[in-house]
Records
---
Amino acid sequence: DGGITQSPKYLFRKEGQNVTLSCEQNLNHDAMYWYRQDPGQGLRLIYYSQIVNDFQKGDIAEGYSVSREKKESFPLTVTSAQKNPTAFYLCASSIGAYSTGGYGYTFGSGTRLTVV
Amino acid sequence: DQQVKQNSPSLSVQEGRISILNCDYTNSMFDYFLWYKKYPAEGPTFLISISSIKDKNEDGRFTVFLNKSAKHLSLHIVPSQPGDSAVYFCAASEETSGSRLTFGEGTQLTVNP
């Protein structure tokens, strides 16, 4: 079955540590995205990539980094520079850079990151 | 700058009645609008969409209405069912930004049996 897999589902991080959230898709989608969900703030875009080896900052990129070395994978690193990293992180993909029409994104099931 | 706003954080309706979820936007360049449904600890799933060239799109119990002059869209669910209880996100895109979506804050819908 095609879909997006995010791992782990729950992640605990100590202050000062970097952590990497995994996102893998087998939908053959060109575009991938990382969103963060906080209560009362909806989904905010962190980074997105419309093609392999290229990515752009979203609205809240500070303290995060990404890579897109393969079409299937778009890992997100939460660095120690991110001051408030506790949140629910969602990865998504779409068919192509200009393919919003019709079905929009396919989302993963999310990773809950907690700083301890 | 919140370009997509859902002003009602929550909505409660009785089973069998109509649920109306509202969404306002400020960016006149938005030309495609979508609604997503999200259960706790899961990713959102696509529900229904509408292009700016239309003012209504219907899919079973779900209908989305778009009022471009008012920069307002709404999602109607008729009849509402307890399984519809979830958070609903409105999202919008503009052609010049490619596939990037801008989401609203979400509305928690509770359908009471």
---
Amino acid sequence: EAGVTQFPSHSVIEKGQTVTLRCDPISGHDNLYWYRRVMGKEIKFLLHFVKESKQDESGMPNNRFLAERTGGTYSTLKVQPAELEDSGVYFCASSQAIAADTQYFGPGTRLTVL
Amino acid sequence: AQTVTQSQPEMSVQEAETVTLSCTYDTSENNYYLFWYKQPPSRQMILVIRQEAYKQQNATENRFSVNFQKAAKSFSLKISDSQLGDTAMYFCAFMKLLYSGAGSYQLTFGKGTKLSVIP
């Protein structure tokens, strides 16, 4: 069974540009989460999808971040325009329909904004 | 809001020895889950062990075991017979148990402990 995959693994962009990160959850997992780790800090929750619906987006830092989950399958996280403080590692995780089930993490996307 | 504290940014242990990573948390909740995740260098994060707060018995997974002290809000991870493959970043995480269906089962993480196993 394929795990959670994320693309790209690394992205280097300049301040003001747009970047789109993609996450493919484990097949059949209804719950999809986005987290972010800024250098030296904790991994922080960004948002949670249940199928295609946003269950909780309380962790999204501001309106420059837009997340979507097309048809309840893969998800994208777009940052527009990117700022220096957006640099970090963005993790995606998925879990089965039982919401308190174990979350399986992807390898992360390392975003560097110059 | 919940907080998770890992007071040891880095640790090292000799191969085959035992090491304990500490984690404390702060919450007003009574029912929750606690996790230890491991992220090896350049690899993705995987679950090491999980503990339900309502269970008094400490969780164990092969060489990994926890010491869960609910009253003290402490959740340490013990790795026995350390192996080179245990070299990784270890994250302690908290999840609140929801009853109403509202909200999400988001994880609250500590800053992590970088563990190096020395041959």
---
Amino acid sequence: GNSVTQMEGPVTLSEEAFLTINCTYTATGYPSLFWYVQYPGEGLQLLLKATKADDKGSNKGFEATYRKETTSFHLEKGSVQVSDSAVYFCALSSLEDDKIIFGKGTRLHILP
Amino acid sequence: DTGVSQDPRHKITKRGQNVTFRCDPISEHNRLYWYRQTLGQGPEFLTYFQNEAQLEKSRLLSDRFSAERPKGSFSTLEIQRTEQGDSAMYLCASSSTWGSEQYFGPGTRLTVT
């Protein structure tokens, strides 16, 4: 079945550091890929998405590129801020069904 | 529109009791989803509705769980004879069509003592 694997946390970085959170997926067909973010005390928010191979999703300085050849969708940001501290979930959905499959999440701590 | 809302935000109950949660989707969203998130894990799909029809149920949804969306608007999720393993965050989401973005509510955190 479809699944998502992302790097385990927590990840702790200093402010202005470069961020990469790895995500790989297993899916039949051509899924849509997502990164969701969950800030402390808040609900899940869609951060960015990509719907086909080589698409790049971007938002708030975060980027991720849909790599079909490596079945990956790694999240990157060039310079993180304290306000980026949150839990990040990689996820996919397929055309065959409308449910979202989430990874386990990666907790990110940014130190000032 | 204020987004997806869920009530209550927190629920503490004793093992064996029944609980019911409510989800109000974004108005005019036809599709409504329930997910469950346990500590340290990502959300897991439970069930979804197209209008009032329940189209799919996960094997996670045991016989003690029932979900309804009687008028195609709000939805309820009931858990009968709660167990400690039911302790989790229950998330609701809605979307306008198949494959479109799902908007999540803040969740209901259930603690079974």
---
Amino acid sequence: NAGVTQTPKFRVLKTGQSMTLLCAQDMNHEYMYWYRQDPGMGLRLIHYSVGEGTTAKGEVPDGYNVSRLKKQNFLLGLESAAPSQTSVYFCASSYVARNQPQHFGDGTRLSIL
Amino acid sequence: EDQVTQSPEALRLQEGESSSLNCSYTVSGLRGLFWYRQDPGKGPEFLFTLYSAGEEKEKERLKATLTKKESFLHITAPKPEDSATYLCAVTATGGGNKLTFGTGTQLKVEL
């Protein structure tokens, strides 16, 4: 079982460039999430979606946009990358029911020069 | 604002040396407390969910407990393969399924 798959696994960008990170899940989960993980900061929620066609802001949404056109996919976009966005990005998904655990992908390591 | 604090930041144990990791939390109303394991270069892997004070859950050498202010992850007779970063997270009343994470405890178990 693939679970949650993130592409790409690594990427280096120059300041000002744009890119899209793709998350795909095959568990038929309704909820999907994007986090960033930085040393000493823990995982912080960027944006999330409670269903196809919906998105909502998390704790640190500035500089990012998201789209959920299909239930199984959740895209994270950086329109104009900044060095402060250098991080490891994790996607997760879960069922709707209360306190269902989130299942994570293996991350995208992104460096902005 | 919901907060989760984990201690210690790092822990080094000898194989077979039992110990506990701490997760203290401040939330408006706890809906669930989650423990995850994270290996280097990988995403967090779900271990346990605890819902109410007094609850305990076990899996192999790991046992998680919950009080009204904190949770403990007890590791009994650890092995080198238990080496990982252990993350604690909470969901709060009114927060849906959104998780607030601590910064983790990095555990190293040596032979």
